[in-house]
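anyone else get weird line breaks when pasting these?? whatever heres mine. first is seq + tokens for prot A
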Amino acid sequence: MKELFMSAGKFFAAAGSKKSGKGAPTSSSATDLAKAMSGLPVHVVSGVTDLVGQVTDYLKIAEQEQTRRTDIIAKRDVALAAMQHQREIMSEMIRFTFQERAAVLQKQFQALDQALAENRPELVNAALNSMVNVIQSSPFKSVQEMQQALGTKDFVIRLE
């Protein structure tokens, strides 16, 4: 019986060392275990065989789950990188949009000042209407359109 436990211990130690990179149980450890079990009652052999099968199944499942965890981590990293990239694009888009609006409004104020200086009510009206149109348009509409476009795989940014 002591020989059975020694052989089983070697077998399970070899099976457990697979995780640490030392390899799977060897055929010699399995042979030693089989030799140690010869002459034992059938229920003992059956129990040890079931135990060996359960340990082997556990090790397979543990390896599969480790692979799944690695896949999940990789997918997480890809998703985080994509979100960071989208954030950078959106931030740049918002910055550009507000710079553009500021420049347009500045030009419209200059046109308004000139129209007032020249006493031209039709130009004052046009400048004010143009300012109102710029102010009423949402700068986030273009950001929303950009976000939707980023979701399509055919999207291309054109710099003009």
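and prot B, same format (seq, then tokens)
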Amino acid sequence: MAKQHDFPTIAPGIDDLEELNRRASNEEIARGEYTKVTTLSFDEVDTANKPL
């Protein structure tokens, strides 16, 4: 019997970024085999030494 996890898991050794950015096929969506992925990007700008 497969072990169930209470948290997201990704198999070791796969390219996480490539796999998470790949779009699900129509067949995968129909079977419910997809995950919605949200990317958060923080763009910090240092304005301390720049004239106004």
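btw re prot B: The chain has a mean pLDDT of 77. The two ends are 64 Å apart (CA to CA).
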